[in-house]
Amino acid sequence: MGEKVKLVMLLGGGAILGSVSTLVLLKLLPRRRGQKYIKEDFRLQGDGLTLETTKRDYSSNGDHQRADADLLKDEIVSEQLTRNIQFFGLESLQKVTKSYVVVIGLGGVGSHAASMLLRSGVGKLLLVDFDQVSLSSLNRHAVATRADVGTPKAHCLKKHFSSVFPESSIEAKVLLYDASTEEEILSGNPDFVLDCIDNIDTKVALLAACVRRGVKVLSATGAGARADPTRIRVADLKESTNDPLSRAVRHRLRKDYGIEGGIPVVFSLEKPKVKLLPFRGPNGEEENPSDYQIVPGFRVRIVPVLGTIPAIFGQIMASYVVTQLARFQVQMEPVVNLDMDHYRVLHQRLIEHEESLFGTATHVQVDVEEVMYVVKELWHGRSAREQIAKDVGRAMWRSVNELMLVRLMNMSKGPLTIYEKRNQSFSQE
To answer: Please, is 220 exposed, middle or buried when counting C-beta atoms within 10 Å of its C-beta (0-12, 13-18, 19+)?
Structure first.
């Protein structure tokens, strides 16, 4: 028994010594920026720990200047981002750490997008939202707790972010985006703007401003009233379907600004599962929601939201932006709205084409699922005859009569294998 006690004491003493040594090393490592920003961001006041947001907080960088070019030279930062370095490579990740991203709308979608941008090493973030954290928003917000209820969403995120990645320059603005705040929010040449706004007027104005300024923007459409994460896609605004918000935005952009497309959006192919809840006043009877609007044009009625879906929207947005910043090539799933009946028609036409040329279709050794693979994965819904690759147009798939698959042949080599057919021998006309 005495030997066991000695062994336990020895192990415990070693663990304590190791912990103390680690803390000492962390203190000795360079903390050029992190400690400074934590100290400047918080002030003790009469009501406890209060976050202060001023332009003076980040005067070492200058207002809206690029992030620290040497961020990855900090040993702790490079260790924290080591998996990203391994994934992208050092030079590519340096592009991320030097980037400046603006996130507008910090609810269920925007909070998750901003959180993963931070954790991915974005060197400078501007967080913008005029709203406060509510108790009902805790089912989908990335970081808010009950203690944050009633505080501005922008301040809530900044407070949390300072403990996750203090080396990042984070600015929070409690603002409503409109024409009067455009310059304050979009100045400074951001590398990307994330539109996570759910109000049509504000969203349209922001997207039009980004197009006018030549600023890259990624927009989120409706994440509420949906439940299937496998139906979420990233495509051009003109490709989005089954989404009332994107339909309205598309119409307004075309009508008011002459913008037809060219704006990437995150959207769901899933039709909304539930509808807006009826608005009931204090007496419990259904009333006109516009009578209770605090901000004109903003929704008062409640959209039922499964918290996982806006979170996934935000994660997808962050992934898209980070890979773009790192110049990392990603081929998004094409939006091809064909059902299995259409693929069966294409397969049957391929067989008929072979029979008309050779009197037999024995060399057609593909089934309907492989036809679907050829159309979606290999050709991404595009025609082999097009000299310039274009995004799949909404009208392109309205008539399957214009689609056809043909087999390219080299008669001297005999029938091609299925593998060769998949990778080189089928073209879509």
So the answer is: buried
Q: CA 265 to CA 218: how far, in whole Å?
A: 6
Paired sense of beta strands 169-173 and 232-236, if any: unpaired
| Distance of alpha carbon 37 from the chain centroid | 27
Structure tokens at 314: 């935000």
Measured CA to CA, the distance from residue 429 to residue 418 in angstroms comes to: 20
Chain segment 28-68, per-residue pLDDT in tens: 444 444 444 333 343 333 333 334 433 333 333 334 445 55
Alpha-carbon gap, residue 162 to 158, rounded angstroms: 6
CB 339 within 8 A of CB 289: no
The Cα 183–Cα 151 span in angstroms is: 25
Is residue 130 within 8 Å of 155, Cβ to Cβ?
A: no
Angle value at C-alpha 310, between 306 and 311, nearest 5 degrees: 105
pLDDT tens-digit map of 325-379: 999 999 887 776 677 888 888 888 888 888 888 888 888 888 888 888 887 777 7
- Angstrom distances, CA of residue 393 to CA of 218, 233, 241: 19, 15, 12
SS3 268: strand
d(CA 105, CA 107) in angstroms, rounded, equals 6
Examine the pLDDT at 388 and tell me if it is beyond 60: no
Distance CA(328)–CA(29), nearest Å, equals 31
d(CA 51, CA 57) in angstroms, rounded, equals 11
**Closest to 198 measured CA to CA, from 116, 106, 113, 306:** 106
Output the pLDDT for position 175: 96
End-to-end CA distance of the chain, in Å? 83
Q: Would you report the helix, strand and coil content of the chain in percent, each value rounded to 5?
A: 50, 10, 40
- Kindly list the distances between the CA atom of residue 246 and the CA atoms of 65, 96, 176, 203, 213, in Å, as whole numbers in the listed order: 33, 29, 21, 10, 21
User: What does the pLDDT look like over 187-219, one tens digit per residue?
Assistant: 999 999 999 998 899 999 999 999 999 999 999
